[in-house]
Specification:
homodimer, 266 residues, alpha+beta, Alpha-Beta Plaits, 10 strands, RNA binding (chains A, B), tRNA pseudouridine(38-40) synthase activity (chains A, B), tRNA processing (chains A, B), tRNA pseudouridine synthase A (chains A, B)
């Protein structure tokens, strides 16, 4: 009897060519799919692993979510141990749940939370080089903290979408944002929680906030960019390795934002 | 006119075959020596870089120290920028000082401080896999905290020295130790500050403390090991990648421990 499992997992994106399976590339989906098929003693490619969405090469996850159907039932705690025993050290399965067959890791998403870490100071910290974007120039945290609030709400984010994004509506809702001045660690962290983000959207929004912090843009420039809906006005994209998928939300996880509005997205 | 520079630098030891120069290997000393000779426009191998001591393959440094003689004077801040601009991203020069020609990074050491990081929990955290030793079994922190105090003082540490260590006295002084229960990060950290440590000494002491935390040894077993002076009784060595050289001390840095007792050591 087939059983559907929801898995929550962290990965260090440094040595992956992103989340999505690709031929001849080491990807998170590819590694997990291989492990699940091995555990089920199925020929490679029989069982599929479906993630909540892709992350780019170098992007990390603290809690990505996927589901798969397993041909025979195993208790969740055994599945957790079994998967971890087969995972490479750059993937950690943090939680396993048995879910109804109606659960879908991608179609059921009600929200996603991303974190972007900027490390400050004149020189790169060797221990953060894969886990933060290093920014050597002074940033005015107060300006960034003010500007990030302008992203909250339902907007057309066309100014913040990479040209490679799938066609379709650029309207998304950002539920909340947060700028954290982590002086002890010489970091500024930016958090974005919304119903979904398009290709490179978080990295482009972060780049605009960095430009505001450098006073290369006025503090209210996000309002203008949301109005003009033109990517040419926001050309920079921050590097992948500062970005973390922090959490994926499903119905019930956050009663305030419980709707599945955009069933298919990036 | 030759000028002597003292440099303080951090490195991520993951991709180095240790500190000490070796043919056909990427080492910290090798990389720095090459950079200093390039900056001085000297043929490779003309100028030498002298570290406070070696660290093993995989061991990290938050503040290692070295000195070198440069053929023409450059202000310290220019040297700092110049070196960092040529360093790979896994080495960061944190400080440069112009010092008298009598200063020697190795012979003048008055103390060293090491940190060992243990990450707890059933599975390896992908983001800590190169920067902590993962320990999946329960550890009694209170026992470790009590036992680590027994290392303080002047002792013969023969029970805690790897067989590959240089011959000579095994007597060293540990000025202070500290066990930190960092529950927020699921880590136990052990700190050792002394006048010098022999080959693998910190990693062997940490292994004994871990065995005490697991109740495989009595809490007062360090007293016995210091008395028997026999490495056969403490066979385990913790892995290199949990170890950080935290600070190197020179005369004046710590008025309480200001003596150069062992002019040549590991």
């Amino acid at each position: 009897m087939t059983q559907r499992y929801k898995i929550t997992f962290a990965y260090d994106g440094t040595q992956f060519a992103g989340f999505q399976r690709q031929p001849h590339q080491r990807t998170v989906e590819g590694v997990l799919t291989k492990i699940v098929n091995q555990m089920a003693k199925q020929p490679e490619g029989t069982l599929g692993v479906y993630g909540s969405g892709r992350t780019d090469s170098g992007v990390h996850a603290l809690a990505q979510v996927a589901h798969f159907d397993f041909p025979f039932p195993i208790p969740a705690d055994k599945m957790l141990k079994g998967l971890n025993s087969m995972c490479p050290l750059d993937i950690q399965i943090k939680d396993v749940e048995i879910v109804p067959d109606t659960f879908h890791a991608r179609y059921d998403v009600t929200g996603k939370r991303y974190l972007y870490r900027l490390s400050l100071g004149p020189f790169t910290d060797p221990f953060k080089r894969f886990y933060t974007a290093h920014w050597r120039f002074p940033l005015d945290f107060g300006l960034m903290e003010t500007a990030i609030q302008d992203l909250v709400g339902t907007h057309n984010f066309a100014s913040f979408v990479a040209s490679g994004a799938k066609p379709g509506s650029r309207v998304r809702t950002i539920f909340s944002t947060k700028a954290i001045n982590d002086e002890a660690n010489h970091e500024i962290q930016l958090e974005f929680y919304g119903d979904g983000f398009m290709y490179n959207q978080v990295r482009i929004m972060t780049a605009v906030l960095v430009e505001i912090g450098m006073k290369k843009r006025p503090v209210d420039d996000i309002q203008r960019l949301l109005a003009v809906q033109d990517r040419q006005q926001a050309r920079l994209t921050m590097p992948a390795h500062g970005l973390f998928l922090e959490r994926v939300y499903y119905p019930g996880d956050d009663p305030e934002h419980n709707e599945k509005k955009h069933p298919v997205r990036d």
